[in-house]
Design goal:
By secondary structure, this protein is mainly alpha-helical. The chain folds into 2 domains: about 70 residues, Arc Repressor Mutant, subunit A; about 140 residues, Four Helix Bundle (Hemerythrin (Met), subunit A), CATH 1.20.120.530. The protein is built from 9 helices and 3 strands. It has a 3-stranded antiparallel β-sheet with strand order 1-3-2. α1 packs across α3, α2 packs across α3 and α7 packs across α8. It is globular.
């Protein structure tokens, strides 16, 4: 039976609410790579039917956050070292391109906002807060590019590598993040001068350093 407009709106709202909640739990590490997501438990938790839960899971699959296997179930997406390395190699091309396209469009308000975000990252109280603020800073730095297709691709790749960024950050510890803070300050200098070419170069190095560090520590992929 076809749904009327109100029923469809209610179902879509429920799907978005479930997807938003699960997305937050995956990105903050409460749901781990490879962990099974049981539809019946999610439906009970949200007081929803299976249909909006299935739609929420499809949203998260398109975001790169879960893996759906037909007639089997859903799991939080996981990567091995080879897959993560390949993803970072792709990001080393796409993220800098998107950033360079954004920087030349920055307004003074954009620059001030991003500069404030870097100060917030350096003041983060722990690795988890750092990860959240760092992700927000970088994704916000891309928005002025006005390239929605590329932005969507980059955001999906950020999603798929989130667990491994967390493991990397925990590995190098708070002292190790000081180099990352320096890289952020250098990016802000490039932003100040609307220097897309320099921002592109810095972002490439920023990503490459993470990739090489992950390659040096394959044990991360056994424990994440």
């Amino acid at each position: 039976m076809a749904l009327n407009g109100n029923q469809s709106t209610v179902r879509e709202a429920a799907s978005r609410r479930i997807a938003d909640s699960l997305r937050a739990e995956i990105l903050n590490g409460r749901l781990k790579p490879g962990q099974r997501i049981r539809q019946e438990i999610i439906a009970e938790e949200f007081g929803a039917s299976r249909l909006p839960v299935r739609e929420a899971l499809r949203i998260l699959e398109s975001d790169g956050l879960i893996t759906l296997v037909a007639n089997t179930g859903a799991w939080v997406a996981a990567m091995n070292l080879q897959e993560c390395t390949e993803t970072y190699l792709i990001r080393e091309r796409l993220d800098p391109l998107l950033l360079a396209s954004a920087v030349v469009n920055y307004t003074d308000d954009d620059f001030e906002r991003l500069t404030g975000m870097v100060a917030g990252i350096e003041a983060a109280g722990d690795v988890e807060q750092y990860l959240e603020l760092d992700r927000t800073f970088h994704l916000e730095s891309y928005r002025a590019a006005r390239m929605p297709m590329l932005y969507s691709m980059v955001e999906r790749l950020w999603n798929t590598t989130q667990h491994y960024r967390r493991a990397y950050s925990q590995l190098i510890g708070w002292d190790g993040l000081q180099l990352t803070h320096l890289e952020h300050r250098l990016l802000v200098e490039a932003f100040k001068h609307r220097d897309g070419e320099e921002a592109e170069r810095l972002m490439l190095g920023h990503l490459r350093r993470t990739r090489l560090e992950l390659v040096r520590h394959p044990e991360i992929f056994e424990t994440v």
